[in-house]
Amino acid sequence: MNDQKLMRVGVIGTVVAVLCCFTPILVIALSALGLSALTGMLDIVLLPLLGIFIGIMVYATWKRQKSSES
Predict the structure, then answer these.
(1) Whole-angstrom distance, CA of residue 70 vs CA of residue 56
(2) pLDDT tens digits, one per residue of 42-56
(3) Backbone angles phi, psi at 58, to 5 degrees
(4) How much is the average pLDDT of 2-18?
(5) DSSP at 31
(6) Which residues contact 21 (CB under 8 A, 6 or more apart)?
(7) Domains of the chain: which residue ranges?
(8) CA 44, 23, 21: angle at the middle one, nearest 5?
């Protein structure tokens, strides 16, 4: 996977995770589907996903800088 695709995946994933973490988008969606019992477990999933996607962005940035130096 080249660094452009890594950066795109990182940015899109981070934006989606932030929207779902800090806004009630998933809570509203889960309650509309009748799955409100799962809202207590959202932080267990979303916060690690946010960290993973931020890590992908940092790695893509590092990889891009390393390739531009050579």
Answers:
(1) 21
(2) 888 888 998 999 999
(3) -65, -45
(4) 88
(5) H
(6) 42, 43, 46, 47, 50
(7) 3-69
(8) 20
